[in-house]
Amino acid sequence: MNNTLNIITDDPIWNQCGFETNQASRNIFDTVLSYMKAQKEIDFLESGKNICVNLSLSNDKEIQKLNREFRGLDKPTNVLSFANIDDADFENYIKISQEIELGDIIIAYETLSREAAEKEIRLYNHFAHLLVHGLLHLLGFDHQQDDEAEYMENFEINILKLLNISNPYQE
Asked: What is the b/e burial string over 20-38, where b = at least 16 CB atoms within 10 angstroms of the residue's CB?
């Protein structure tokens, strides 16, 4: 399976993160897709079609602008996901397309870094958690209701475990 993760580094601040972002992102992306395919929860992952995601490694200024424009919240956040699965035509699109474009994920370095420091966890571990979280949104998972949140969190915990990262929801 040749899935595609298009990575755009919007801000050179990512050069100081202490890990190789492209390699890490691709590993996380592949781990999420193989784990979710094994769960047999998402029919289109069984199609054999190339799965495509765009990842933007950005900053607080850019993510605040997007958060304001698309969510009405005028503040930075750690990760934003724009899922094509939310589009009414997604089902038809995946039937006729040779490739399934899931959507876009944007991660803000400053918020990521601040949160990792506050939680006293490695930057890579928090990055992996945010990317897993964003990818699950692109696959159709949400956390608006408590039961949805618990369901999604269980997938996050299991995927992070495969990446040798401990449960981020433990106190």
From this structure: ebeebbbebbebbbebbee
Contact 109, 57 (CB under 8 A): yes
142, 148 contact by CB (below 8 A): yes
All structural domains of the chain, each given as residue ranges with its CATH number in brackets, are 4-162 (3.40.390.30)
| pLDDT-based confidence at residue 12 (cuts at 50, 70, 90) | very high
Distance CA 54, CA 82 (A): 10
CA dist., res. 156 & res. 130, Å (int): 9
Mean pLDDT of 141-168: 91
Strand order in the sheet with 50-58: 4-9, 50-58, 99-108, 79-83
Residues in the chain: 171
Please indicate, yes or no, whether the overall pTM of this predicted structure exceeds 0.85: yes
Q: Does an H or E element contain 120, and which?
A: none
pLDDT digits (tens, 9 = 90+) for 55-97: 999 999 999 999 999 999 999 999 999 999 999 999 999 999 9
Which two three-digit tokens encode residue 94? 């995946």
- Separation of alpha carbons 88 and 84, rounded Å: 9
- The pLDDT assigned to 143 comes to 81
Nearest to 149 by CA among 140, 157, 158, 141: 141
